[in-house]
Design a protein that fits this description.
CATH architecture: Up-down Bundle
Helix content: over 70%
Mean pLDDT: 88
Strand content: under 5%
CATH superfamily: Rhodopsin 7-helix transmembrane proteins
Structural class: mainly alpha
Distance between the termini: 56 Å
Radius of gyration: 19 Å
CATH topology: Rhopdopsin 7-helix transmembrane proteins
Number of strands: 0
CATH class: Mainly Alpha
């Protein structure tokens, strides 16, 4: 729990953080409706990937609603701000994000299982190891758990980057460009998380650090969940149209 009052947030900083929480919730709500409606636009082979996109943003939207409630109570009533909602969300949604990507690629079932058997445990360890540092006020503790979490962060990105690079050449040329963009988006958006995490360590202004962490996480969540889901949907749609034309 974070004592918001002790941070000395200005009215503008409260407005910015609250505004980003509201924006993120709205994006996830709209994205969920889109994914569940548009899942029938793709072939059954890719329908599960689009459905998972809808599930991801639904879960994330619920948690951002709870985050908004917690922040409002922290500002108006002096209650503690609960960071645990975000980590509970990540424990559920990050493995699903990895699953939707693997499902939309042209990978043999055995290879899919092998990948997920590595990626899902990596994601769980990455998130669980990051939480103690997130809630700690000690810089040494924050650095230690950041480093431990980063080990699995790097393993996930290296595994996915290598798999995407291998698959691009084997995929339909119509989706190769999107898969290359997907690979870039994966690296860029996921990089927001460890950078935002370190704001309390690198900045002397606790209030500004709080704003950067929460705005950074909100931007990263929007792009890594809703934005990434849209790219997954596009890949599925193009591959469906190509299979029909063939």
């Amino acid at each position: 729990m974070t004592d918001i009052a002790s941070l000395g947030l200005s009215a503008n900083e409260v407005m910015v953080v609250g505004g980003f929480f509201s924006l993120t919730f709205a994006v996830f709500l709209g994205s969920a409706i889109f994914f569940f409606i548009s899942r029938m636009d793709v072939s059954p082979a890719y329908r599960m990937a689009v459905t998972i996109s809808g599930v991801i943003v639904t879960i994330a939207g619920y948690h951002y609603f709870r985050i908004m409630q917690s922040f409002d109570k922290a500002v108006t009533e002096g209650a503690g701000f609960n960071e645990a909602y975000r980590y509970v969300d990540w424990v559920v949604t990050v493995p699903l994000l990895l699953t939707e990507l693997v499902l939309v690629l042209s990978i043999a079932p055995e290879r899919r299982r092998a990948l997920l058997n590595k990626l899902v445990p990596y994601s769980f360890l990455m998130i669980v190891l990051g939480y103690p540092g997130e809630i700690s006020g000690d810089a040494t503790t924050q650095w230690i758990f950041w480093a431990l979490s980063m080990v699995f962060f790097v393993l996930i990105l290296a595994t996915l980057f290598g798999e995407l690079t291998r698959q691009i050449a084997a995929e339909n040329p119509a989706v190769q460009g999107t898969l290359k963009s997907l690979r870039t988006v994966l690296l860029v958006t996921w990089s927001f998380y460890p950078i935002a995490y370190l704001a309390p360590v690198l900045l002397d202004d606790a209030g500004l650090a709080f704003v950067i962490v929460n705005v950074g996480y909100a931007i990263a969540d929007i792009t890594a969940k809703a934005g990434y889901g849209l790219m997954i949907h596009h890949v599925a749609k193009v591959k469906t149209e190509h299979s029909i034309a063939a």
